[in-house]
Amino acid sequence: MKFAEITGWGKCVPPAVMTNNDLATFLDTSDEWIRTRTGIEERRVSAVGTSALATVAARNALAAADLDPLEIDLIIVGTCTADEIIPNVASKVQQEIGAKNAAAFDLNAACSSFFYAMHFATSSIRMGMHKKVLIIGAERLTRILDWTKRESAVLFGDGAGAMVLEASDNHAGLLASKVSCDADARDVLSLDFGMSFDRYNFDGVMPFNFIGQEIFKRAVKGMSAAVEAVFQETGLSVDDIDVLIPHQANKRLIDFLAKMCKVPEEKTMVNIQKYGNTSSATLPIAYTEALETGMVKPGDSIISAVFGGGLTCGAGLIKWGERVTPLQNNQMTLEQGANQSALDLILPLFEGAKAAAAKAES
Question: HAMAP family under this entry (predicted)?
Answer without folding.
Answer: FabH (MF_01815)
